[in-house]
Amino acid sequence: MLLRDLLAVAELRLGLLTGDEALDREIGDVLVTDLPDPSRYLTGGELVLTGLMWRREAADSERFVAALAAAGVAALGAGDAWLGMIPDDLVTACRERGLPLLRVPVEVSFGAITELVARRLAGARAGDLRGELGRRRRIVAAVAEGAELAELFTLIESELGVVAAVISAAGSVIAGDLPEARAVRLARAYLGAVRLPAVVRDDGTFTLFAVDRSHRAAGWALVCRGELDAEIGFELASCVAMARTRTEEGRRVERRLAEELVELAWAGGEPAELSARLRTCGIDVAEPYVVVTATAGAGRQAGAGGGRDPALLGGRVVEELLDRRVVAVARAEPGESVALVPLRETTADELAGRLRERTALLAAGLPDVTVAVGVSSALTGAHAIRGGLEEAGHARRMAEARGGGVATSDEIYTHALLLATVPGDIRRSFAERLLGPLIDYDRRHGAEMVRTLEVFLDCAGSWNGCAERLHVHVNTVRYRIRRIEELTGKDLSSMADRIDLFLALSAGR
């Protein structure tokens, strides 16, 4: 089939953007792809159809077109559903490389083009090989048109006879039919595999493929029953990666809503606005929820993404640990991700137990990755968000101090947890009333009364220890302490007064 014959098909409404001089090129096959470099799947003479999901910047077009031209493809057909247009840099790259470029209208499916070309090809592959390639094209075309994972696996089984599923590194089943216990065992094999694809024996034979190039701790694995041909497996894994990309685009909106809620809670926002934003994030003000915070640090030997921002990696990991039931993930402190999780089908203790099992799985499979998770107690209402953030944050820091894992609010019954349950305005008022005179004095005189008080209490009231820490004479410490007592009206020889001032310093941080 010649390129001019394809353009002449009125029902397809294809437009030629560049390549008038190459209308007599013969089309020998069709490939639907959104890989940044599909060279390994090209043999020459193909019509390549792409939804442009690989394009992030102008330079990507030159790299993509160069790979197609080097492989000797017949033409490139681009759909504009993803970007809303065909970018000028793609047109320029095709013109410079002498590659015909066709615009595919958004209402015309790649599947329709694939089927039409397949019907009209003369002298193409015959028999079973033709049928297999057609089936694979239909699978790729379905993903390009927006098929969900459940639809994709139904199509894979019906067209190729391949039974497949997708699991997370934490052992949860993303799509497909797979018992949870087996999913956990296969996830362990995925994490421990020296290289992928890997063939695993588990009451049967399975082939594991990496779905994407994200850090393995946050990655997905394609599980195919039997020993699957690597080329087919890579193609199917690419299809799953495309579907995940679409899901991620949708979750960006959810994450932004969560970020705004967390920022407003930290700033002490109005209760009515906090309640409205909580409902926008999918949690009713009357239903219980927990706050989960997490960090994930990766060393250089942990695989691709070892230098990834711990907050970004932590956010992806906590979503997978929670089976993506999490309402949304946002950033809280630098390097920390926070999630609000409704307790609709579980309790806080059960959730923490599940998180322990899954972080232990990651720790065993990827010893170079440290995941630390903090879980608050069960909360209700928007007014509890800030306290929950602090509570979960304290628990997460305890988990970090222990080298990773999960810590809950039950493990941190200290003054810090007590303060976290006190409304922010009361904490601030308490701190300002006791420490305000010291802060004003330091501001007017350039003194260090607040710093001296902190060190004195940290040294358990030792004059000499405080002087050594501050690098001043012990008489200077004695003078400052007397002045602090005069300004605050507190007696630092009294344990009760010391506690008041210590709590005021903690509440003011």
Structure description:
This protein is an alpha+beta fold and 509 residues long. 49% of the residues lie in helices and 16% in strands. The protein has helices at 3-7, 58-71, 88-97, 110-120, 127-144, 149-160, 180-192, 230-266, 271-280, 310-321, 348-365, 385-401, 415-420, 424-445, 449-458, 463-470, 474-488, 495-507, and strands at residues 15-18, 29-32, 46-50, 75-79, 101-104, 164-168, 173-175, 198-201, 205-210, 220-225, 288-298, 328-331, 337-342, 369-375, 379-380, 405-408. The strands form three sheets. Strands 11, 12, 13, 14, 15 and 16 form a six-stranded mixed beta sheet that branches. A five-stranded mixed beta sheet has the order 1-5-4-3-2. β3 (46-50), α2 (58-71) and β4 form a beta-alpha-beta unit. The longest helix has 37 residues, at 230-266. The protein is elongated.
